[in-house]
Specification:
- The complex is a heterodimer of chains A (179) and B (187).
- Chain A has one helix and eleven strands.
- By secondary structure, chain A is mostly beta strands.
- Chain A has a single domain, classed as Lipocalin.
- In chain A, β7 and β8 form a beta hairpin.
- The longest helix of chain A is centred in the middle third of the chain and has 5 residues.
- The two termini of chain A are 22 Å apart.
- In chain B, strands 1, 2, 3, 4, 5 and 6 form a six-stranded parallel β-sheet that branches.
- Chain B has 187 residues and is α/β, with parallel strands linked by helices.
- Chain B is globular.
- Chain B has a single domain, classed as Rossmann fold, CATH 3.40.50.
- The chains are: A mainly beta (179), B alpha/beta (187).
- Chains A and B meet through α1 of A and α4, β5 and α6 of B.
Chain lengths: 179, 187
């Protein structure tokens, strides 16, 4: 389901340009700093129609990139993404409202076998013409509690802090090309 | 359905090896539990030696883990943790990280000790280690305490009905995980 947003997007389907798009996550490490990762390529499209805007996107869990590859098998295991049984992270919007500079996107985020409603905020820019097809840019941020997705693994550091925070910040930047 | 059983103890009269044998004897039809008993031959992990071809025992173990549908590991408890020989073998099989046969491998852990807690800390440690390798680990333990005395008195380690029930529960969970993977593969 989509609703009318106050942003103006020419009707049609806008598909992701994977070269200029990213999907990253950040989680607190040791209660003082952060651990980062990302997925690529991203599969996404924005559909602008009479009923408003709808955004869909997916990434393959196995594509996760992190700064320490030694951690990857654990990240793909049932303690986290359970990638073998849930190979994708998917998002499908149910409501897009707001203004170009204060966009609100509500939708279902599915990963690790769980689907939950999330609300992301961000902005949309364009369309612009770089000399080829028209392009849009969409940037969104949200935060989720990983335990909502069954990712409740924890280990205490020797100094007593949690090794890994529970809040995951998600940042998605999409460059979308008119089909 | 094939289960590779590994005892973390090298001792000829090992209580943990015996525990694996008792579990194998009670395994339902269709479950083939095969023991891999060459832990002693695995060299100390050294990244300099982790080249092709791998040391023969390492190659054997990697292949055995890869071909098995699931793992069943029995661990003693040394200094509140697992034996170095067992951890060393897991370290070999967990590498290279992007090709480890432990990724998504269903695995269960049991343990016996002469002490009063039945290797609960070693079993927890082993589950933690296996999870870190990417394995799909059954979240239950089988703490066989005072194993030498129980064996002397009853002639078997799982003389207690609660231990037998827990053993069945662990094997049921392990079977379910393997079956689920097969269903997913068949789709």
């Amino acid at each position: 389901m989509s609703t009318t947003a106050t942003v103006s997007v020419p009707a049609g389907t806008w598909v992701v340009d994977p070269v200029h798009s990213s999907a990253n996550f950040e989680v607190e490490h040791g209660e003082i700093s952060a651990f980062h990762g990302g997925f690529k390529p991203i599969d996404a499209k924005l559909i602008a129609g009479d009923s408003g805007l709808q955004l869909e996107g997916a990434v393959g869990v196995a594509s996760v990139t992190i700064n320490d590859e030694n951690i990857k098998p654990h990240l793909l295991s049932p303690d986290f993404f359970d990638a073998d049984r849930n190979p994708d992270v998917r998002f499908r919007s149910t409501e897009i409202t707001g203004t170009p500079d204060d966009l609100r996107v509500v939708g279902e985020l599915s990963m690790a076998g769980v689907s939950k409603s999330v609300e992301a905020r961000g902005r949309i820019r364009g369309p612009v013409d770089f000399g080829g097809p028209q392009k849009l840019s969409l940037a969104l941020e949200t935060a989720i509690d990983r335990t909502d997705y069954g990712m409740d693994w924890q280990m205490k550091l020797p100094s007593g802090q949690d090794a890994l925070g529970y809040e995951i910040k998600l940042t998605v930047v999409l460059e979308l090309v008119q089909e | 359905m094939s289960i590779l059983a590994i005892s973390g103890s090298l001792r000829s009269g090992s209580l943990n090896t015996r525990l694996l044998c008792e579990i194998a004897e009670q395994a339902p039809a269709g479950i083939d539990i095969e023991r891999w008993d060459n832990l002693r031959s695995i060299p100390p992990y050294d990244a300099d030696d982790d080249t092709a071809p791998a040391p023969r025992a390492v190659d054997e173990l990697r292949r055995a883990v890869s071909e098995a549908d699931g793992l069943l590991i029995a661990t003693p408890e040394y200094n509140s943790s697992i034996p170095g020989t067992l951890k060393n073998a897991i370290d070999w099989v967990s590498r290279p990280r992007d090709k480890t046969p432990l990724q998504n491998k269903p695995a269960a852990v049991v343990g016996a000790t002469t002490g009063q807690f039945g290797a609960v800390w070693a079993q927890a440690e082993l589950r933690k280690v296996l999870s870190s390798t990417g394995a799909r680990v059954v979240d239950l333990d089988l703490p066989v305490a005072k194993a030498d005395r129980v064996l002397a008195e009853h002639g078997r380690l799982m003389a207690d009905e609660r231990l037998l029930a827990r053993s069945r529960e662990i094997m049921d969970d392990l079977q379910s995980e393997i079956a689920r993977d097969r269903e997913l593969t068949a789709v």
